[in-house]
Design a protein that fits this description.
Largest sheet: 5 strands, antiparallel
Order of helices and strands: HEEHHEHEEHEHEHHHHEHEEHEEH
Strand content: 15-25%
Radius of gyration: 23 Å
Helix content: 25-40%
CATH superfamily of the largest domain: DNA polymerase, Y-family, little finger domain
CATH class of the largest domain: Alpha Beta
Number of strands: 12
Distance between the termini: 47 Å
CATH architecture of the largest domain: 2-Layer Sandwich
């Protein structure tokens, strides 16, 4: 988007960051920057070393959201959007003769053409065409930039063998270690593992679902049995004040997010509330798909200035719009995956050495208020 906005940046390595500081992180990188190893989450200091000619651009979320809306408008001139997955990803369902490989490719090329003509010459798109959305997304990763890949039933599963395990949506470093422990080290191993063994390797029915997806079955979206996750706490007298409420809420968010990670769930909505003897307060925040404590605490702190409770007696948090990992596309502008991996490491330390061996500094006085 930055290269489309500024022609002088086209063909140059560009990294988008929140602030131009060596201690900050890369939010997004152009393909020219990726060629040097710069990627989302790279420390700015390291990115500058890896790519001496790197151009830093400060993130402009309002501009990107405007582009997102414009892309939707242009894309819908070609096909109706079936699902918007994130700010830079959407799905389209082909029906009837559109499912013929030749016609599907024509529609994809038409969409690419309209994006260039209606939005700008630097507005490229990688498109995957496949028997299901899971494989179509993988197809977008097989050829970049500006790729167009068709995966047919005849191609499966051999066409996937060249991928790394972490190239599959839903396999992060922790899941990769779990699969390795089950004897699955490559995409070929993943595809060749029998259905029941794959279920055991994943530790849930998700593994069996993957067996079907990898073979091109168009499975309905996975629904979670749990619709929400919540924690609440009656405040002891010493914490019945503004700071006490906030600190206990932060502690509850740490517990709730740890439960998400334990169950491999992600949330997209946060509710916080304070029950008061005289007046209560409740606030809501939409979240990028996340399971990390820091993102949730940041949302709480954004909501906190609006509180108007009087004489608090209890607090609570509710995480809703829960999704399995395979149904999640992390935000382009949030460090959700890196933070989730960090918090998973914190969970491991606390399980090994005891509760609150590692905790967020802001909840120090409230860390033992809820066991």
């Amino acid at each position: 988007m930055e290269q489309n906005e500024d022609p002088a940046l086209r063909g140059r390595p560009v990294a988008v960051c929140a602030v131009d500081a060596d201690t900050s992180f890369v939010i997004a990188a152009s393909y020219e920057a990726k060629a040097f190893g710069v990627k989302t989450g790279t420390l700015i200091r390291d990115a500058k070393f890896m790519c001496p000619g790197l151009v830093l651009a400060k993130a402009r979320p309002t501009v990107y959201v405007a582009y997102h809306k414009r892309v939707q408008e242009v894309a819908e001139k070609v096909l109706p959007i079936d699902k918007v997955c994130s700010i830079d990803e959407m799905q389209f369902r082909l029906i009837g003769e559109e499912q013929q490989p030749g016609r599907a490719r024509e529609l994809a090329l038409e969409m690419k053409k309209r994006l260039r003509e209606d939005i700008g010459p630097a507005m490229t798109a990688s498109i995957g065409i496949a028997p299901n959305a899971f494989l179509a997304k993988i197809g977008t990763e097989l050829q970049k930039p500006d790729g167009l890949v068709t995966l047919t039933q005849h191609d499966l599963p051999e066409r996937l063998y060249s991928l790394k395990l972490t190239d599959f949506t839903g396999i992060n470093r922790r899941m990769q270690a779990r699969l390795n422990a089950a004897g699955i080290f490559s995409a070929e191993d993943l595809c060749q593992t029998p259905r029941q063994e794959l279920r055991q390797a994943f530790g849930s029915v998700t593994g069996e679902r993957w067996w079907y997806l990898l073979r091109g079955f168009d499975m309905p979206e996975e629904e979670t049995d749990r619709k929400s996750l919540s924690h609440s706490h009656v405040l002891p007298p010493a914490l019945r004040n503004e700071k006490g409420c906030r600190d206990v809420l932060m502690r509850l968010l740490q517990k709730a997010s740890a439960r998400l990670r334990e169950n491999n769930l992600w949330t997209e909505h946060l509710t916080v509330y304070v029950n008061g003897f005289d007046r209560s307060w409740e606030a809501h925040a939409a979240l990028p798909p996340t399971q990390d404590t820091v993102t949730m605490n940041e949302a709480l702190l954004r909501l906190w200035p609006g509180h108007d409770f009087v004489r608090p007696r209890g607090v609570g948090v509710v995480l809703s719009r829960l999704k399995e990992r395979t149904g999640v596309t992390p935000s382009l502008f949030e460090e959700t995956q890196d933070r989730a991996d960090l918090m998973s490491a914190v969970d491991t330390v606390n399980k090994k050495f005891g509760k609150n061996s590692v905790f967020i500094a802001g909840m120090e006085k409230a860390k033992n208020s809820r066991r």
